[in-house]
Design brief:
alpha/beta, eight-stranded parallel barrel, five-stranded antiparallel sheet, 14 helices, about 25% helix
């Protein structure tokens, strides 16, 4: 019976949890159908498991198998590690321990304060695979980033989507190359000194191929805009929580990743005495101690609640960092002038001053978008490296009507200003793939639902989402159109063109300069006058023209290339 106590691998007794079933069979491809028996000695709270009384002898090669629950099936194993025929097919055995890892010398790194690079495997390269992504890792090393954050790779129905419609959390999407390619990718990152953060989704499941409710009460009564939430605190929730904890352990231990980005944790509904986030953080810290390398959990949250990153000794959850949308909104609104929808409160330069000094903008203040007060102050002794900041990311680009990047709005000076605010600020900076050279390709919302009715509903839902933002529904691309996906792929010929190469060098210079500033150094002497925002970190003074121009000639002691001196001035003080 699987547990959070050790690595996962093939088990020929075929354990499966189905607490309400009256009969469960395993179908082993080429070897017939075999009835499972209830496990009688399951620990308290973990009843409802079924398995064969003895391991099945099917030879040394991996077998394909599935479960039939009360006559329904065969369906994939809820803990499947590989789905060669897609999420509706049989599960194939996969042993993650069989990989000959070459990262024995990798000691990991604390990712708070690191420069993170967010990428989507399907659109990062023309081929859209993990192996082809390896070929571009040297570009990231030359850029100077410390870690890659990979959008979800768990198995989903279809050939391409963002990854947030996954239904089998342990299996790596086959169109990306499957689990063996994932191991090669992590190995290659570590060989180049790059940490790996894996984006995981524990708040909902995708709409196609989700057979978990057939097996047992995996879903709870609460829901979000993405559908039913997981059963984290109801009857039988011990096993569901174990399903999540085991998954986190699988990525961190068996697949050697260095951190997890926890998607939309505000959509986790849990009234347990130990919240699932606290349980995940506790497990990660214990595992880090056992493995002898740092492990980092980063939450995506729009709650502006310091409890997420407050230590457990101070009655917090003990996560290591969280995304800070307030920084993004402040940068975006001030540089672009866009103040509709959720940008409405962030258009004044004082919003940038506040986030640089205090981390959150909404820290108990009134949010006009939410039409209520929101957030609470960050603890005074929390370093701002506990907050992940960005001027662009997959959500803030992809959830725009046309999926347009800042390059569609800002000139070169404005892009340079956005880069300086992100990379030289006191936060943990994150870049979105292609941002570093001013990619002109959009990053749009794309899906490949094989079910026509689901594709139609998704397209209609996207148009409805943009009503409150005031965006034109006529420019919303059809997410089911394959061209929407193809348009979103990076164009790797761009970095060699003069205008893009100039911006790329700017990013390299800023990252190199950032390394000379101790990570925990706060922003001081923050102020704004005549459209110029200025702050000091250590002995580095940064001045940014929010219009992207107007600073004039660079000072003699400038620390970076003079290419964008009219937009950003950096001097030693």
């Amino acid at each position: 019976m699987p547990s959070a106590g050790g690595p996962l691998g093939p088990d020929r007794t075929f354990p499966v949890w189905a607490p309400h079933a009256t009969a469960v069979d395993v179908v082993v491809d080429g070897h017939g159908t075999h009835p499972l028996s209830p496990v009688r000695d399951a620990p308290e709270g973990h009843q409802g498991w079924w398995s064969l009384p003895a391991p099945f002898d099917a030879g040394p090669d991996p077998v394909d198998y599935g479960f039939v629950v009360d006559g329904d099936g065969p369906h994939s194993d809820p803990r499947s590690l590989r789905q060669p025929e897609g999420v509706h097919g049989l599960t194939r055995e996969f042993d993650p321990r069989a990989h000959a890892w070459s990262d024995g010398g990798w000691s990991g790194r604390d990712l708070t304060g690191a420069v993170i690079y967010e990428l989507h495997i399907g659109t990062f390269t023309p081929e859209g695979t993990l192996d082809s992504a390896i070929d571009r890792l040297d570009h990231l090393v030359e850029l100077g980033v410390d870690a890659v954050e990979v959008l979800p790779v768990n198995a989903f129905n279809g050939t391409h989507n963002w990854g947030y419609d996954g239904v089998l959390w342990y299996a790596v999407q086959e169109t990306y190359g499957g689990p063996e390619a994932y191991q090669r990718f992590v190995d290659a990152c570590h060989a180049r000194g790059l940490a790996v953060v894996q984006d995981v989704v524990y708040n909902h499941l995708g709409p196609s191929g989700n057979y978990l409710p057939l097996y047992g009460p995996y879903l709870g009564s609460a829901s979000s805009t993405w559908g039913a939430s997981l059963n984290l605190d109801g009857p039988h929730s011990d096993v569901v929580r174990g399903y999540i904890l085991d998954n986190a352990r699988y990525w961190l231990e068996d697949m050697h990743v260095d951190g997890l980005r926890l998607d939309a944790v505000h959509a986790l509904h849990d009234s347990s005495a130990e919240h699932i986030l606290e349980a995940l953080a506790r497990q990660a810290d214990e595992l880090a101690s056992a493995l002898g390398r740092p492990l980092t959990l980063i939450a995506e949250s729009d709650l502006n609640d310091p409890k997420l990153i407050r230590t457990r000794e101070r009655n917090g959850y003990g996560l290591h960092a969280q995304w800070d949308d307030d920084v993004h909104h402040s940068i975006h609104a001030n540089l672009t002038g866009e103040v509709t929808g959720y940008y409405a409160d962030f258009g004044a330069p004082e919003a940038l001053v506040k986030v640089l000094e205090r981390g959150f903008f909404h820290d108990g203040t009134y949010s006009s978008f939410r039409e209520r007060h929101h957030g609470r102050p960050l603890d005074a002794d929390f370093p701002h490296t506990r907050l992940v900041a960005f001027s662009q990311d997959h959500d803030q680009i992809g959830n725009r009507a046309a999926g347009d990047r800042l390059t569609a709005t800002l000139d070169q000076g404005g892009l340079a200003a956005a880069a300086a605010l992100t990379l030289l600020g006191p936060f943990t900076p994150m870049l979105f793939m292609g941002e570093e050279w001013g990619a002109t390709t959009p990053w749009q919302f794309f899906t490949s639902h094989p079910e026509p009715e689901l594709g139609k509903a998704t397209a209609e839902g996207r148009v409805k989402e943009f009503e409150k933002m005031g965006w034109d529904p006529d420019v919303v691309p059809d997410p089911q159109d394959p061209e929407t996906f193809l348009r979103s792929k990076l164009d790797w010929s761009e970095p060699s063109r003069p205008e893009h190469a100039e911006l790329l060098q700017w990013y390299r210079d800023l990252i190199a300069l950032r390394r000379t500033i101790p990570a925990l150094t706060p922003a001081t002497e923050v102020g704004v006058a005549e459209g110029v925002l200025a702050f000091t970190r250590g002995d580095v003074r940064v001045e940014v023209a929010l219009s992207g121009r107007g600073l004039g000639e660079p000072a003699p002691a400038t620390e970076v290339t003079a290419a964008f001196a009219d937009a950003v001035r950096v001097t030693r003080v």
